[in-house]
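Encode chain A's predicted structure.
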Amino acid sequence: MIFWHSRLAKYVRHEGRDKMEKAELNSVEEWVDSISGITKPEKVVYCDGSRAEYQRIIDEMVSDGSLIKLNQETFPGGYLSRSDPRDVARTEKSTFICAEEESKVGPLNNFLSLEDAEKITDRLMDGSMKGKTMYVVPYIMGPADSPYSEAGVELTDNQYVVVNMFIMTRMGKVAMDRIKKDGTFVKSIHISGDLDPENRYILHFPWKRLGSDAHIISINSAYGGNALLSKKCHALRIASVEAKNDGWMAEHMLILEIENPDGKKYYFAAAFPSASGKTNLAMLMPPKRYAEKGWKARLIGDDIAWMHVGKDGRLYAINPENGFFGVVPGTNPKTNPNAMESIRKDTIFTNVALTDKNEPWWEGLPVPEGKLLDWKGNEHDPSTRQKAAHPNSRFTTPLSKYPSLSGEVENPEGVPLTAILFGGRRGDTVPLVFESFDWKHGVFLGATMGVEQTAAAEGQVGVVRRDPMAMRPFCGYNASHYFSHWLSMEKNDCKLPGIYYVNWFRKDSDGNFIWPGFGENIRVLEWIIARSEGKAKSRDTPIGRMPDESSFNFGGLSLSDAQKEQLFAIDYGEWSAEVSEMEDFTRSLGKELPGEIKSQRNKLRERMGS
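Encoded structure for chain A:
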């Protein structure tokens, strides 16, 4: 339906442009009217979230060439989108937290003053949607009837955003009903603009907002993370500040359900930085040896967890999302069979290659016969060694298509966590798994988590970057305050889960991975489950509690005794360097670093004897 409102918006002329005066805009319609007065779209469309609406927009995009219809026999409901080559990834340098005081933002975020943010938005928003349609996209993050869910509205001029939001969120009428009930919603504005990287801004306003009253304003990008504003922008950067204020947690974590042969279920939340095995763990498929015994794995979420303390004092988690926006290169029936089954239907692919059978292709799949068009639409020449699919190419798929989905996905209360896992990709230093001594020690481990940089991440390849709780790019406020919030969750009446540190990527002297990974990672979860029930032994080491030899199941794996030993080895030289790097990082965070983090750092050095 098309609406055109002219209600309570007030405007003044400011440096030759229309600028909205700050007003109380209590309804969606009032706020939409005020923003349309600035951006001046040709028309305004309120999205109802229906399947018919989705298909209508899809058909329009196919008609104008912005989407390619894939082979509907092999990929029914599948489409391919190719983005502008200047706009293919989330860009940290263009992402800002806007505040009155830089101390609230902290040294790990890009700070922008409210005054400078206002100058930018005044310059770039005025008339920015002329000749375009403004789509009003209401959505809910989390189960529709959960008290822990939150509604939002994104205004966008981009149809790609609309159809992806249809997949990724609970969108349309259900969200408008929630907004009317709650009376509040997160406001975001997305303007595609001309995609100029030099004028690209993803602005967040967790505290004081500008005249537009928006929590998030994104300009000059149409890439997923910069344009699907419900995801990292709302569900992490804005929500993390709300969580601190209200006593809950918004985290960059998967949520996984494991059922043992006795039918008992356990729930894990895990934070892994880029290229550290997060998606593969979320979509874990037990190996044959375990499946035959009755072990089962079910997914609840692959990327974001909102966590709260339940009435029984345990920590519960919900998945605020309703779909996947996953990196696709490397995905195949061997590495991730569940993902392959999921993306066979009703999936939008972005920046993958295209075979002459009109099927999507990416590195990691068998090389196809015949002509292959790369992600830019040009014929691929393998001799150039250029990737046919962009390394950051994506799939957007409904959560409901996942073949092993937990029945707890829509549970309004969420699921009680058995354990929290941290772990970054490390070729050395870090053992396969170890347990924190207590909650404070576990917070320290997460706060100082390191990950070797890969080609898919910003930074020099191979260099270890500190990525606290995998939230470095996504925490909406000062990291020191964030650590304090984690520490504050330990209250007398809380029964918090154990915290564990894992590393699937340790290598031998020849540079080969020692641990088989993928489905075999269930062995690590099996040990953690046994630890949570007091049934598995451990041994104290300077870095934490490691599995006792008799308590970890290596049965059926082709690992030598030397390899098993290396998986759990602690090299004091490597750890001495690690502690020094941890110290450098924590000192870089400034004077507001919690004393408990400093204390844990000093205790680790003492235990290492250095």
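The CA atoms of residues 342 and 401 lie 5 Å apart.
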